[in-house]
């Protein structure tokens, strides 16, 4: 089999699955900050129960998501040694910063937050959660800096066949960066909102006795989803304004596409057709827009929050439940368009994908592809099974934040002893 195709399939699979974890992590940590802040300000116990419940789901996703991130990082050295060699001096700087932030600062803050319940003052404990959220967003910031450079290389010069960073500020002012970052952030917030609204709707459909708890989280989730879809759609359309300029073969006018392809052929050899992305690359974009426009209808559910008509009618609860997968699909389609649309370049106009892949046999890469795919799929399935299992228990007795003297409520009918 074609080694290049296998390497691309492996990276697409692992990156896409990891991205699903990232969406939940960023979305839920944003909502957790709101919930615990509300608890700190209002002193209402309902917000503490919500923080403990959604915090448990967040921790499950975070723990398994970290593993998928480590798996993804390995591929830069294993399958894409040409990329690492040629652009490592530029591309490696933001990725190294992201690794330090995600694996050290964020994990440290999160660990202290987990074990700081009832041991730290409420203000300090809340500050730790803010630290988790800030470092999570900082991690996303540096990943998008690195990816935006591949989309539109700036601030570098080539010496001895290797790209060297000459202007760090150019990475941050890259035309491909700020709007794309905001688009990803609000995609995650939208995902978190729909996940919270969908799980809350499920609990209300099941007539969970924690009515007030999930009534509150349903309202928060619907409002968050409405804000998120509005912002993510706006920042999505805003990218069309510059994509035709920096990546004419992806989204330019037909004449501009052919002119850019002819220029690449003159510089790098081959025919102009070799430098055009697949003809079907617009399909993921179309699906993303269709799903985004569908999700935007959540705005019409906002008036139903008045006097709990959204719960009384019941039908909107089913709509929210079935809508949970849609933000994930929209994000994946958008990511496919962003990445596939710049083919055949791994660094647009600078390094072709075929020159970036590790020169390995098809058998080796097939084994690698199958092994990594099985691992990542297993982690994704385990994540959703655990989320469903702990979500089904409700908010009556989440282990996170339980006081040492708090009795453990029975889950399956069997009494359990309190923690010593």
TrEMBL record:
<keyword id="KW-0479">Metal-binding</keyword>
<dbReference type="GO" id="GO:0070069">
    <property type="term" value="C:cytochrome complex"/>
</dbReference>
<keyword id="KW-0408">Iron</keyword>
<dbReference type="GO" id="GO:0005886">
    <property type="term" value="C:plasma membrane"/>
</dbReference>
<feature type="transmembrane region" description="Helical">
    <location>
        <begin position="180"/>
        <end position="205"/>
    </location>
</feature>
<keyword id="KW-0349">Heme</keyword>
<keyword id="KW-0813">Transport</keyword>
<feature type="transmembrane region" description="Helical">
    <location>
        <begin position="16"/>
        <end position="35"/>
    </location>
</feature>
<keyword id="KW-0249">Electron transport</keyword>
<feature type="transmembrane region" description="Helical">
    <location>
        <begin position="357"/>
        <end position="386"/>
    </location>
</feature>
<feature type="transmembrane region" description="Helical">
    <location>
        <begin position="90"/>
        <end position="115"/>
    </location>
</feature>
<feature type="transmembrane region" description="Helical">
    <location>
        <begin position="127"/>
        <end position="150"/>
    </location>
</feature>
<feature type="transmembrane region" description="Helical">
    <location>
        <begin position="317"/>
        <end position="337"/>
    </location>
</feature>
<dbReference type="GO" id="GO:0009055">
    <property type="term" value="F:electron transfer activity"/>
</dbReference>
<dbReference type="InterPro" id="IPR002585">
    <property type="entry name" value="Cyt-d_ubiquinol_oxidase_su_1"/>
</dbReference>
<keyword id="KW-0812">Transmembrane</keyword>
<dbReference type="GO" id="GO:0020037">
    <property type="term" value="F:heme binding"/>
</dbReference>
<keyword id="KW-1003">Cell membrane</keyword>
<dbReference type="GO" id="GO:0046872">
    <property type="term" value="F:metal ion binding"/>
</dbReference>
<keyword id="KW-0472">Membrane</keyword>
<dbReference type="GO" id="GO:0016682">
    <property type="term" value="F:oxidoreductase activity, acting on diphenols and related substances as donors, oxygen as acceptor"/>
</dbReference>
<feature type="transmembrane region" description="Helical">
    <location>
        <begin position="217"/>
        <end position="238"/>
    </location>
</feature>
<protein>
    <submittedName>
        <fullName>Cytochrome ubiquinol oxidase subunit I</fullName>
    </submittedName>
</protein>
<keyword id="KW-1133">Transmembrane helix</keyword>
<comment type="similarity">
    <text>Belongs to the cytochrome ubiquinol oxidase subunit 1 family.</text>
</comment>
<dbReference type="Pfam" id="PF01654">
    <property type="entry name" value="Cyt_bd_oxida_I"/>
</dbReference>
<feature type="transmembrane region" description="Helical">
    <location>
        <begin position="285"/>
        <end position="305"/>
    </location>
</feature>
<dbReference type="GO" id="GO:0019646">
    <property type="term" value="P:aerobic electron transport chain"/>
</dbReference>
<feature type="transmembrane region" description="Helical">
    <location>
        <begin position="56"/>
        <end position="78"/>
    </location>
</feature>
């Amino acid at each position: 089999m074609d080694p290049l195709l296998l390497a691309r399939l492996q990276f697409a699979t692992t990156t896409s699955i990891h991205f699903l974890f990232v969406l939940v992590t960023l979305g839920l940590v944003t909502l957790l900050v709101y919930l615990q802040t509300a608890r700190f300000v209002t002193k209402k116990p309902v917000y503490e129960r919500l923080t403990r419940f959604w915090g448990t789901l967040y921790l499950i996703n975070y723990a398994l998501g970290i593993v998928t991130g480590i798996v993804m990082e390995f591929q830069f050295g294993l399958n894409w040694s040409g990329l690492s060699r040629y652009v490592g001096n530029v591309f490696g700087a933001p990725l190294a910063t992201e690794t330090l932030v995600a694996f050290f600062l964020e994990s440290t803050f999160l660990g202290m937050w987990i074990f700081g319940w009832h041991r730290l003052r409420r203000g300090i404990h809340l500050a730790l959660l803010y630290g988790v959220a800030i470092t999570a967003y900082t991690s996303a910031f540096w990943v998008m800096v690195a990816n935006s450079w591949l989309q539109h290389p700036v601030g570098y010069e080539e010496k001895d066949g290797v790209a060297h960073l000459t202007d760090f500020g150019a990475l941050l002012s890259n035309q491909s960066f700020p709007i794309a970052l905001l688009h990803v952030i609000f995609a995650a917030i939208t995902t978190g909102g729909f996940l919270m609204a969908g799980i809350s709707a499920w609990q209300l459909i099941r007539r969970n006795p924690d009515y007030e708890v999930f009534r509150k989280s349903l309202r928060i989730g619907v409002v968050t989803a409405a804000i998120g879809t509005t912002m993510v759609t706006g920042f999505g359309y805003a990218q069309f304004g510059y994509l035709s300029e920096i990546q004419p073969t992806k989204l330019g006018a037909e004449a501009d596409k052919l002119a850019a392809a002819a220029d690449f052929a003159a510089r790098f050899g081959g025919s102009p057709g070799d430098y055009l992305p697949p003809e079907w690359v617009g399909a993921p974009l179309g699906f993303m827009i269709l799903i985004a426009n569908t999700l935007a209808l959540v705005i019409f559910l906002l008036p139903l929050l008045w006097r709990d008509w959204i719960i009384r009618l019941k039908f909107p609860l089913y709509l929210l439940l079935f809508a949970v997968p849609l933000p994930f699909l929209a994000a994946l389609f958008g990511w496919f368009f962003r990445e596939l649309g710049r083919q055949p370049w791994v660094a647009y106009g600078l390094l072709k994908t075929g020159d970036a892949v590790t020169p390995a046999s098809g058998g080796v890469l097939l084994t690698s592809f199958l092994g990594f795919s099985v691992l990542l799929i297993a982690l994704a399935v385990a994540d959703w099974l655990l989320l469903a299992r702990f979500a089904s228990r409700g908010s009556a007795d989440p282990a996170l934040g339980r006081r040492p003297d708090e009795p453990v409520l029975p889950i399956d009918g069997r009494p359990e002893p309190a923690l010593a």
